Amino acid sequence: xxxxxxxxxxxxxxxxxxxxxxxxxxxxxxxxxxxxxxxxxxxxxxxxxxxxxxxxxxxxxxxxxxxxxxxxxxxxxxxxxxxxxxxxxxxxxxxxxxxxxxxxxxxxxxxxxxxxxxxxxxxxxxxxxxxxxxxxxxxxxxxxxxxxxxxxxxxxxxxxxxxxxxxxxxxxxxxxxxxxxxxxx
Length: 185
Prior knowledge:
single chain, alpha/beta, Rossmann fold, 7-stranded mixed sheet, globular
């Protein structure tokens, strides 16, 4: 019996596994844009940029963005299914659907390129619920998107998560979606 040809999804997954590190190395400008936009979002929402602010970078890869934010004085922890950070970044191994952190542990959670069911076996709904769980009340979830339509595709899913309040939608100039975790009286 002839071998079944790989599906387009399998091809994308394999290409990402083989090329993730090279891609991360080639995205310096994109990384600098993410860095600047995240800092801007923290300032706009009156979060201090210093060691008192604990940030979780979900899907941190080699930790380049997390290390940039650490140099700004933020306390940053990375989480990745394949942790491969270099340097002094504290990085945990784990999946975004089951984070190994306490409820309400982080002031800020950041993600970029996290939601891609074509490449990863993932439950986006569980990921969003976990992000809300590990955020402190009043904390921010900052999501860097490739394009504004990326948020449009997942908007209904995010609206189901009652713990998160939408603060900023993406535009062509600022490709960030920002949520604030609700505080309950």
